[in-house]
Write a structure and sequence with these properties.
The complex is a heterodimer of chains A (about 200) and B (about 180). Chain A is an alpha+beta fold and about 200 residues long. Chain A is built from 5 helices and 9 strands, in the order αβββαβαβαββββα. In chain A, strand 6 and strand 7 form a beta hairpin. Chain B is mainly beta. Chain B is globular. Classes of the chains: A alpha+beta (about 200), B mainly beta (about 180). Strand 7 of chain A pairs antiparallel with strand 6 of chain B.
């Protein structure tokens, strides 16, 4: 058992890396436009978290509408506010279509990101954006479901976080449909969101 | 009486306007700051969301001297301190770490602190940074000492990643290659 435990972490790291590679390859391929025959990519899954109003929020609440979900934290100078800003602009650009999808921001720093702070932070962005936090275990489970990496990095006075910056584009069944990130050009990202809404 | 200028004079003046960065950027960007052997240009920051505890700071530092210098951090009334951090994106993972021992600026080199790379971090913000405001700060260098720097706060959509598609006016950055 001791031996097994010692290989568990390297194995997990390897599997995660392999999965990231697989997803990257899948994304690079032309793709059969979700015509039903494409096999499901094992990204995403059920989670139980708490929203910015302090109410329980489960992945069940997202069923029926496609959604864009990403992980971040409020003590983040660039990627997280930029992503939230971009998605706010996108929702505006989508017009009525914006109501046919959800945007979800999940913190990887549950220690500092209380529902109250999430609510204050998100008040600077589109009010439709859902902010989720939870116990460290709940966050870890959600991150695992999305194959998301995150890690505390100590600094002189506190800590900061490394984290996967992918925006996961999930369909109405909660299945992985595509990905974007804050470095992608606005028009490409918007086209992906439009397609996500259209495909439902 | 209208003053008269010779054609060569006018041509020279036009050329100066065309090539001089301080003219080209007009009031949008203040004159470079000189501190010992260092020249600091275009310090800016980005507006922060409500409740945000940190903000980014960006600028360009040129070392015109013969000795290396190091940017070790700084202070600002709006924050508890300024730290120097490095961000990187590898395989979609955003990594952030403090620059231990300060950021070296070698003689004759220009170091750019910009989104996605080395940057300043305003820590424990006392209030959000607002678009259009100016944030006063003091940067500390090993050799050049303390240097007062005013950061122009730009909109939240400024300078994230390679996002060139933003509708907002592009950052008035010069790119000399």
């Amino acid at each position: 058992m001791v031996f097994k435990r010692s290989i568990l972490l390297p194995l997990l790291v390897f599997l995660t890396a392999a999965l990231v590679l697989l997803v990257t390859l899948l994304l690079m391929l032309p793709g059969p436009n979700s015509s039903g025959t494409a096999s499901r990519v094992p990204i995403g899954g059920p989670f139980q978290l708490t929203d910015q109003n302090g109410k329980p929020f489960s992945s069940e609440s997202l069923k029926g509408k496609p959604f864009a979900l990403f992980f971040g934290f409020t003590h983040c100078p660039e990627v997280c506010p930029t992503t939230l800003y971009d998605l706010t602009q996108d929702l505006e650009a989508l017009g009525k279509d914006a109501d046919r999808m959800n945007v979800v921001f999940v913190t990887v720093d549950p220690e500092q990101d209380t529902p109250e702070l999430m609510k204050t932070y998100l008040s600077s962005f589109d009010p439709r954006i859902i902010g989720l936090t939870g116990t460290p275990d709940e966050i870890a489970a959600a991150a695992k479901a999305y194959r998301v990496y995150y890690k505390k990095v100590p600094t002189e006075y506190g800590y900061t976080m490394d984290h996967t910056a992918t925006i996961f584009l999930m369909d109405g069944k909660g299945d992985f449909s595509g990905a974007s990130n804050f470095q992608e050009a606005q028009d490409i990202r918007r086209e992906k969101l439009r397609k996500l809404v259209k495909n439902g | 009486m209208k003053p008269t200028f010779s054609t060569p004079f006018l041509a020279a003046a036009a050329l100066m306007l065309a090539v001089s960065p301080s003219f080209a950027q007009s009031s949008a960007s203040p004159a470079p700051i000189k501190a010992g052997a260092l020249t600091i240009e275009q310090p800016w920051s980005r507006a922060t969301p409500a409740g945000a505890q940190v903000g980014g700071g960006y600028l360009r530092i040129t070392n015109t001297g013969k000795e290396p210098d190091r940017l070790t951090g700084g202070s600002a009334p709006v924050a508890s301190r300024i730290e120097v951090h490095q961000m990187s994106m590898v395989d979609n993972v955003m990594r952030m770490k403090p620059v231990d021992g300060g950021l070296e600026i070698k003689p004759g080199e220009t170091v750019e602190l910009k989104p996605g790379g080395y940057h300043l971090m305003f820590m424990d913000l006392k209030e959000p940074l607002k678009d259009g405001e100016t944030v006063n700060g003091t940067l500390v260098f090993e050799k050049a000492g303390s240097v007062a720097v005013d950061f122009a706060v730009r909109g939240m959509g400024q300078g994230g990643g390679q996002n060139m598609g933003h509708g907002a006016a592009p950052a008035p950055m010069q790119h000399k290659h």
